[in-house]
Amino acid sequence: MTEVHGGVDGDSAGPDGFAWPESVDPRAAAYIEGALGDASARNFAAWREHLIVPRVLRDVTQVSTEWHHDGRTSSAPIAIAPWASQTFVHPDGERATSRGAWAAGVPIVLSSNSATRVADLPGVDEGGAPFWSQLYVSPDRGDIVPYLEASKAAGALGFVVTVDAPTVPTDFPFRAPIRDIAPPSVNFAGGVMPAIAADLSLDDFRRIRETTGLPVLAKGVLSPADAAMLVDAGVDGVIVSNHGGRQLGGVVSTGAALPGVARAVAGRVPVWVDGGIRSGEDVFRAIALGADAVLVGRPAARALVDGAAGVEALVRRLRDELVTVMTMAGCTTLAEIDRSLLA
């Protein structure tokens, strides 16, 4: 049986030593931090193996972290990763996450298993962040059509299809007790998210794009060969992710997988990455290794304890730290960050 951690000590603490406040149900905290083996801890550690090489005698009077994507400009190359049932942490759940991200100038990815209907997210004219909709493809493909249509009607920028969950690990114990406190999956009929298809294929990406006319990204790519296959087939973006270490204990860390995937993609589509990002230095490392942007999941869940203000503060901290690292490395724009700045 794979060892399960709610961090590295088997409780609800994270591998970076974060401890949840008593206001959050311990079952929810353990569910959010839970991972198989030491996969989450290795995600966290992998970024720190890449040491930064500062450069000197460069004009860094003006440093910009602006990220240009989808015809938009965000304040930093950061998005909030999808995570389920955010009312576990704060009564405003996904609405607070959206408002906090908007205040900090970055987008979010909404989990299809959210506690807030996609139609009830605040719009960008109401102080809500631009968003992508994440989804799992179900065995009956018709089950996801209403969610696709509702997401498009709500203004989604596109869809993030999770590709690394063809099965649910039988030895991940936090899922069972969480059902006692989980809200219904409000985006699906009957409050139950459909089962996940074990026969996901490139045809599903084509159908989603044909149904919605919106871009479709693949989340959960770790193999360069898979990345090349997806891009060759016309997928609009690749997200390097190992599901926060929740699917496979011995999985490769995202920091180790990113360079190979980025080389295979070769700039043809955007590459994002998540898993273990905790600081502006980590954001810098990810960009240097070939990512266009990062997603933060567990840090955003922790920040949501303080509502929208907490999410905003998290993003602003990461952005401010990124400015400091870029200044020390002699970079004035994201485009100037490359592999030569890592030892």
From TrEMBL:
The family this protein is said to belong to: Belongs to the FMN-dependent alpha-hydroxy acid dehydrogenase family.
Keyword annotations: Flavoprotein, FMN, Oxidoreductase
Keyword Phosphoprotein found: no
Domain FMN hydroxy acid dehydrogenase: 41-343
Protein name: Lactate oxidase
Alphabetized Gene3D superfamilies for the sequence: Aldolase class I (3.20.20.70)
Region feature (Disordered): 1-20
Cofactor: FMN
